[in-house]
Write a structure and sequence with these properties.
Layout (H helix, E strand, L loop, with lengths): L4 H25 L7 H37 L14 H6 L7 H5 L1
Helix pairs in contact: 1-2
GO molecular function: zinc ion binding
Pfam families: DksA-like_N, zf-dskA_traR
Protein name: TraR/DksA family transcriptional regulator
C-alpha cells in the first residue's frame, strides 16, 4: 500500500458518487419538454439550474481523476508551483490540492 492509499480510496468512492449523480442529472436534462408552455418554462428554468450543478460535478470529477492519476504516477503530494511536498494534513482536508498551503495562499 502506498502512503496515499487511504486518500485514493476516498477519492475513488467520491468519484463513483459524483459520476452517479451526474448521470442522473444528465438523464433528467434529456427529458422531452411538456406540451404546456407554462410547464416548458418551468422545465427550462429547472434545466438551467441542473446544468449548472452538472458543470460543478463534472469539474470535481475531473479534479478527482487528475488527483488519482497523480497518485498513480507518483507526483501526488508535490506542489505544482514550487515542487515542495504538500503536507499530509492539507491533502487529507483537500485531497485534490495541487499546491502546498504557502503557494495556494500566495
Amino acid at each position: 500500500m502506498t502512503e496515499y492509499a487511504k486518500i485514493a480510496e476516498q477519492l475513488t468512492d467520491r468519484l463513483a458518487q459524483l459520476v452517479t449523480r451526474a448521470e442522473v442529472i444528465e438523464d433528467d436534462l434529456r427529458h422531452p419538454l411538456d406540451a404546456d408552455w407554462a410547464e416548458q418554462a418551468i422545465d427550462l428554468a429547472d434545466d438551467e439550474a441542473l446544468a449548472g450543478v452538472d458543470e460543478v460535478l463534472r469539474n470535481e470529477i475531473q479534479q478527482i481523476r487528475l488527483a488519482l492519476l497523480r497518485i498513480e504516477n507518483g507526483t501526488y503530494g508535490t506542489c505544482a508551483k514550487c515542487g515542495k511536498e504538500i503536507g499530509l494534513k492539507r491533502l487529507e482536508a483537500r485531497p485534490i490540492a495541487t499546491r502546498c498551503i504557502k503557494c495556494a495562499s500566495a
